[in-house]
Design goal:
The radius of gyration is 18 Å and the shape is globular. Helix content is 22%, strand content 26%. Helix 1 packs parallel to helix 2. It starts with 28 loop residues before the first strand and ends with a helix. The strands form two sheets. Strands 1, 2, 3, 4, 5, 6, 7, 9 and 10 form a nine-stranded mixed sheet that branches. Strands 8-11 form a two-stranded antiparallel sheet. A hairpin with a 5-residue loop joins strand 2 and strand 3. It is α/β, with parallel strands linked by helices.
Length: 228
């Protein structure tokens, strides 16, 4: 898990994309006075996500395909299905809900990487293959999942989750970059959002698509600069 390298503490209110309102985001640069992590990465400014680390000489121009590791999920604290909702509650997803969470994230990453003739998705290492490991950590589920669709329920927040992506060279295993972002997927124009399976899945899918698209756009930007 990525916590062996860094301790991730993120605000859920920060913007996902740097500079998205005024055009393309500036290229990442090594942060002033940044020190190397144990695996040789440096904290970067102008990252796509809230937190980013990378090799200072990162060159992704040679990578045309990706291997995707299975998505891993970890709760912020051990969940339990309580009889009442509280601000610090953390409820358990069912086995089916957990598998859906992982598969939806994987599908959005594959879609973003492969669209418009982008990157190939492969299953074996190669000289032009990068490996992507994805973690959904510090998961907080604020609504009892066994109540969905049983009766009409409203909540100010479904929960929160931190996404961590680690990029490796598929052959050497060298870590190239790491990014993290914490968000609440709840999407509502009102103070309360209605809770049902369809609404929650749509909001979670929207967040995962946002993350995946942001990563694809940054990869394209870095590759285009390297090829100049």
């Amino acid at each position: 898990m990525p916590s062996r390298h860094i301790r991730i503490v993120l605000s859920s209110t920060a913007f996902l994309l740097a500079g998205c309102a005024s055009g393309p985001a500036p290229l990442p640069t090594v942060a002033p006075n940044a020190e190397a992590t144990v695996d040789g990465l440096y904290r970067m400014d102008n990252t796509v996500m809230q937190l980013g680390f990378a090799k200072p000489d990162l060159d992704l121009s040679g990578y045309t395909a990706f291997m995707l590791d299975p998505v891993e999920v970890a709760y912020q604290k051990d969940p339990g299905n309580r009889t009442r909702t509280s601000s610090d509650a953390n409820y358990a997803l069912s086995t089916r809900q957990m598998e859906t969470l992982k598969s939806v994230f994987q599908e959005e990453v594959e879609r973003a990487l492969g669209q418009d003739g982008g990157y190939r998705i492969v299953t074996t290492p190669g000289p032009n293959v990068a490996r992507l490991s994805a973690y959904l950590i510090d998961l907080v589920v604020r609504i009892p999942t066994d109540r969905a669709d049983v009766r009409r329920t409203f909540a100010t927040s479904y929960g929160e989750v931190t996404m961590v992506l680690e990029l490796y060279d598929s052959q050497s295993g060298e870590v190239l970059a790491r990014v993290a972002d914490r968000q609440d997927p709840t999407n509502s124009a009102y103070d309360l959002a209605e809770v049902n399976t369809a609404f929650v899945r749509n909001d979670v899918t929207r967040l995962f698509r946002y993350w995946a698209t942001a990563v694809r756009e940054r990869l394209d930007q870095l590759r285009s600069v390297a090829s100049m």
